[in-house]
Each structure stands twice: as structure tokens, then as C-alpha cells.
GPW/gp25 family protein (Paraburkholderia unamae), 116 residues
Amino acid sequence: MKGMNATTGRAIVDLSHLYQSIAKILTTPLVSCVKRRTFGSELTDLVDAPFNGTTRTRLYAAVATALMTWEPRVTLTRVQLSIDDDGEQVIDLEGYTTESGDAVRTSVNLTNGTAA
């Protein structure tokens, strides 16, 4: 798939476009897009919740639901929440693309909404 880099405005393709899309979906709060109220995920509601088993389960469900709904190009095999050295929450995702079967491995920083 071909698209545009949200930061530079240059063209991006394939996995770069997919990773950008995943980060956008996961860091967009539900009902924040006027014409697409169901776009996004519940992650922004869970970022400040207590860091316990219940919240982790809700977070994993929110990731899976949002990506199944809005990103049909990816099939998840692993979702892991971690905290980096700066104390920021990071979602690590693994899976494969439904288009080519390529491995997908990315991290989404929930604090600043970037994919790595």
C-alpha cells in the first residue's frame, strides 16, 4: 500500500505505511474524529489507569479490537505492554501482513504516539 508520511509529507509504502497506520489507530481517542466517531482505540482512556492485571487485559483487548476493526492488513500474534527507561508506556506488537505474509514487528509509544 502507498501513502503519505504524516510528518514529512513524502511518499511511504509497505511496512512503513502500515506502522504509521497502526500508531495512528492506537493513539487516536474514540469519538475524536468528527466524521468517523468509531475510529481509534480506547487506549487513551487506559493510559492513566492503575497498572494492574485488569488494566493490562483491557489494554490488550483495546489493541486487538481497534486493529481488527481498522487495519485489515495485519494479523497480530503478540501484544506486550512495557515501560521504557523514561517511564513511558510502550506497546510492542508482532504479527504478519495479510497481503504478503511479511513479519510485522513494531512498538507504539503511548505517550507521544510514535511507532518505532
Q: What stands out?
A: The CA atoms of residues 3 and 12 lie 5 Å apart. Helices lie at 14-27, 43-46, 53-70.
